[in-house]
Every structure is written in structure tokens, then in C-alpha cells.
Design brief:
alpha/beta, seven-stranded mixed beta sheet, DNA_Partitioning_ATPase, binds adenosine-5'-diphosphate, AAA_dom, Chromosome segregation ATPase, binds magnesium ion, Rossmann fold
Amino acid sequence: QEEWPRPARRRVITIANQKGGVGKTTTAVNLAAALSMHNQRVLVIDLDPQGNASTALSIEHRGDVPSVYQVLIEGMPLAEIVKPVPDMPNLYCAPATINLAGAEIELVSMVARESRLLKAINEFKEIELDYIFIDCPPSLGLLTVNAMVAAAEVLIPIQCEYYALEGLSQLLQNVELVRAHLNPKLSVSTALLTMYDGRTRLAAQVAEDVRAHFGDTVLRTVIPRSVRVSEAPSYGQSVITYDPGSSGAMAYADAAREIAFRGASVTG
Ligand code: ADP
Ligand code: MG
């Protein structure tokens, strides 16, 4: 197995796009799984009240499980909620529960409301980590702002369909606002084309438009639409373990490899 470089400093990558269903969670889970299988120590922080990333990683997230909600609202240490992912030695998950939906409103009146996740991550020393992926909800509210304040990198999954670019300017504007006022280290480091259907002219056109707009930020690897990718979560698995030879698994492994190698020079 090829050695992948360990980042000089822990990389915190926020996966954001205020549109639902573009592949945020799938990307978070599968990049994390692929990196962990190449000896990188990885934490996935589930910041979506739906808890889809927790489900996909087989992490309990019933309403009474201590979750990111307690971390953000009650100041519970991250170490108390982080769980090892079954059968994945280097992979951990901080689960989300449905009460996180209320956190969006509860945060509004709280002290340092935008930087509560950052504080929790900075105080988390119990497990040495190479990567933290934050899986955002489909909105640009305070949960996503917390994720952007806690990270140096934003990864934008872009679904290869007609409205792909719509709404992206709003997302980029939010990244700019957070950079200007809250986190000068933040940048969009990565864009990833997801659910690509090679049979359609439209998908090729969208991919071309995205590359023209985002340039080298876009990973060369494109994630194909694949039934295996959508089946894996119902088995509590990444597609990387569920069907390693499938086109989706191989694409996510290639994307993770690109991130590991190009990021060797990324700092901050
Ligand atoms: P988001 O987190 O942005 O809402 P998801 O990652 O949950 O998006 O993906 C939305 C739906 O599309 C899910 O049902 C997921 O299983 C499915 N999906 C994601 N990526 C692929 C893919 N490459 N091929 C097929 N289905 C996919
Ligand atoms: Mg999601």
C-alpha cells in the first residue's frame, strides 16, 4: 500500500454547501474512511441535526446520546462525545442528534456564538488527529458559521446537475464574510464534482463550467453516480468498506489521495 503523507499540522476541513442532497455527508464519510485506511487519524464532526454522517459511520445518535449539541450549547468537552467508528481503527465520529436543530436558535444569544466549535476543537487533545472533517447542515446559519470559524479549509461538493452553480456565490460570499471578520485563515481549498453521470452532456457541461470558475481548486477526480455509494449508509458503512472495488469507492479513494498529496503543502 502506498504511503500517504501526514499533514505537518492537523487539517480541519469544513464540508459546506447550503443546498441539500449535493453529497456533503457522503463526501465527509468516504474521504474520512479512505484517509483513515491510509494511516491518517481522522475525526468526522457531524453538524447536521439529521445525523446522517453518524448513521453512515454506525455511531449511535438517538436523542438522549450526548452529541455536538452538548458541546456547543453546554460546553461539554468534545472528548466526552467522540466515539471510535466500529472496525475502523483510525476513524472517530462526534455524533449529531436531532436537538441540534434547536441549537441554531439557542446559539443566537450565547457568548462567542460563532466560535464555540473552534474552542471545543482546540481543547480536544485526547486523540492525536491528522484530519477533522465537519459535515455541515444544508444552511448558512450559525452551525455552518461555527464550522467555518473552526476550519482553515472549506470543501464544496458540487452536484453535476443543472442548478449546480446557483447559490454558490452566496456560499462564497459567506466564506468571505467569515474570513474578513472571524477567521482570516479560511479559504475554499477544494471543490469536488459529485454524482457525475458520464452519459449526459449536461454533466460534462456543468463540470466544465465549474472548472472554468474554480480552476485548480477542483479535484481532478470526479465522483460518479453509483448505486453502491447510496446503498452503503444503510449498512452503517462507507462505500470504501462496503464495496471497495466499486467505481464510487475507487473515486473517493482517489479524491482522498489528491487531498492528502496536494495538502502536504497546505498550512494553517
Ligand atoms: P447532503 O449531505 O449534501 O445532503 P448526501 O451526501 O446525503 O447529500 O447525498 C444525498 C443523497 O444522494 C443520499 O441519498 C446519497 O446516498 C446519495 N448520493 C450521494 N452521492 C452519490 C453518488 N455518487 N452516487 C449515488 N448516490 C449518491
Ligand atoms: Mg448531509
